[in-house]
Amino acid sequence: MTDVIERNVHDRLSRVIDPELGKSITDLGMIVGIEAVPRDVIDSGRSIVDVTVKVELTVEGCPLTQTIIDKINEAVTSYPAAKLVPHIDVASMSRSKLTGLVNDLKAERRQNPFTKPGTKTRIFAIASGKGGVGKSSVTANLAATFAALGYDTAAIDADIYGFSLPTLFGAHGHPTNLDGMLMPVTAWGVKLISIGMFAGADRAILWRGPRLQRSLEQFLSDVWWGEPDVLLLDLAPGTGDMAISVAQALPNAELVVVTTPQPSASDVAVRAGLVALQVPMKVRGVIENMSYYEHDGERLRIFGEGGGRRVSEQLTKDLGHEVPLLGTLPLEPEVRIDGEAGRPVVLNEDGTLADSPLAAEFKGIAERLMR
What we know:
Elements: H1 2-13, E1 31-43, E2 46-57, H2 65-77, E3 83-92, H3 95-109, E4 122-127, H4 135-148, E5 153-158, H5 165-169, E6 176-178, E7 181-183, E8 185-187, E9 190-194, H6 209-221, E10 230-235, H7 241-249, E11 254-259, H8 263-273, E12 282-288, E13 293-295, E14 298-300, H9 307-319, E15 325-328, H10 333-340, H11 357-369
Helix pairs in contact: 4-11, 6-7, 8-9
């Protein structure tokens, strides 16, 4: 009986997925032993069996250790034919075993994973013509919306000079280094990477040209992303080096332009969209942020109105294909308050999508982007 239980438990553990690597813990070699020892006791007609599972995690002090242990416990205790009592023995992989695992993963990937034929990932580069239009908060809340809707979601803070995604997601940890391969930090269901997560990021950064492009290449190829459904990139304002680097590294990316209603912002936003005339990148649509402020049932147009529509119509005309206005977002203090506290405003405290007009607007934008 014990042999059968051990085989069945191993089969059940093969369906436990490592949350960082996106692969089965058995395929990754994390399960190094399973031992079943029956007790001389029957409970409600079922045998009671102690099951010791020996686990080797990739690194000591792995931040997701408890998550993996909980999933193993669930797989063992839900065994239907007997009452299994789990005992989890946790250790870390040897240096040589970890090196072999990382080499296998790198060999499997070999290159930027988002340009491989047949990739399922939809890539949206969030751009703006100028700063101060809320591009990063739009990126953060859109990413959080995708994750809450069940999409495997990743985000790259490609604004090297003005990174803000770690703050907006409350992601204060550092990427786990697996023998030279980085694991993105996960917050609110979104896998994140940002220059702000590395030591010395608080110093002034004056990168240009090749070095700036190399930073993006490293974010794409030196980080283990798995195969997310959606990847969002928060670009620096304007039409400079990073926008060109994204187009070169991710020719399948789709540009989403963020503007505010006033002409001084929307006129510049058009130029951000027209970068598509110079690089192989499709403009997917326009988002108008801070469209109005709701006060006593009245919508106050603090920054004027019509900017998103003007950008949409001008880009449609200049690019020769429809560039729709994907959504209009209100000006709400909670966007700043919750963002500075480290939680995207579209989410409840348990990570579910909030029941609010703003969350509904982001949900609509996400659904339109995935059509």
